Amino acid sequence: MDQQVYAIGVKGQKWGEAEKAQWLNGQSVKRSYHDEVLVKILALKERFELEQYGALSYDVDRYPLYAVKSKNWDLTKPTILVTGGVHGYETSGVQGAIRFTETKAADYAKAFNILVVPCISPWGYETINRWNPNAVDPNRSFYADSPAEESAALIKLLADLGVEIFAHIDLHETTDTDNSEFRPALAARDAVEHSNWNIPDGFYLVGDTINPQDAFQTAMIEAVAKVTHIAPADEDGKLIGVELAQFGVINYATKALGLCAGVTDAKYVTTTEVYPDSPLVDDENCIVAQVAAITGGLDHLLSL
User: Fold this and answer.
1) pTM score, two decimals?
2) Per residue in 40-52, pLDDT tens?
3) For a Cys-Cys bond, which of 16, 67, 87, 148 suits 138, CB 3.0-4.6 Å?
4) DSSP 8-state code for residue 181
5) Residue 235 to residue 213: CA distance in whole angstroms
6) In what residue span(s) does the Peptidase M14 domain sit (predicted)?
7) How is the chain split into domains, by residue range?
8) Is 126 an active-site residue?
9) Out of 46, 126, 273, 284, which one is annotated catalytic?
10) Rounded Cα gap, residues 131 and 150, in angstroms
11) pLDDT by residue (tens digit) across 80-95?
């Protein structure tokens, strides 16, 4: 696939404030964070502790940020972090985090403290966007003095919680709009060219290059394979241009890249990637795959 020309900016020149403003002016609300996410989170209040850990300054009433905690928090238990919606357009990440909380989290709370942050980027959820209104990618912004308030709010939540995270599972998707919209926009914003446009057809995981924890990743892939298909390698034996670590798994330098998966020093870390545009899946299958990844990982940890 050739480099696409984006409608905003001049090729070869990075965006300034005028281009970012033009981009923002083209965004619109396409679905309801309140109806599709908040209502489901608030319905959990009898079974879990809900913590509002902030609100996005773009509209503090419209975009409150919530975390869901298991009751009877016990500092002697390992703590599990599940995050979704870092990229708001990645629907099954948000809905998968909620579904896990609704259906499975209480069972695992017998052995673990469970912390679920279902939708880190609610503006992105409503506008179906990868970036925030400032044309910043929250999933490249998990570091000190973050330029993304979505990322900074999660960092503060975890600091205030003051516990060591044992495992972190971050739920994502890779969609066809990565090629039709988000990569061209990124290329235009940063005046760069992209050489890899492959979107894997199926589920895969991204582990941490420094701390891959291969058996943990294997357990999740095996669990997900029972409910949906795992992405095969491309003709070069890679996924999104990266060498396979094992079937269905690649590794990234999560901390160096500022990824959500690198926000803690957890021993066990992974990022899920679902492909919702595959002809082999539907929305429900994508949500079920996300839940299977979480439970497969937790079952592995329980077996250690």
Assistant:
1) 0.97
2) 999 999 999 999 9
3) 148
4) I
5) 26
6) 29-298
7) 17-303
8) no
9) 273
10) 10
11) 999 999 999 999 999 9
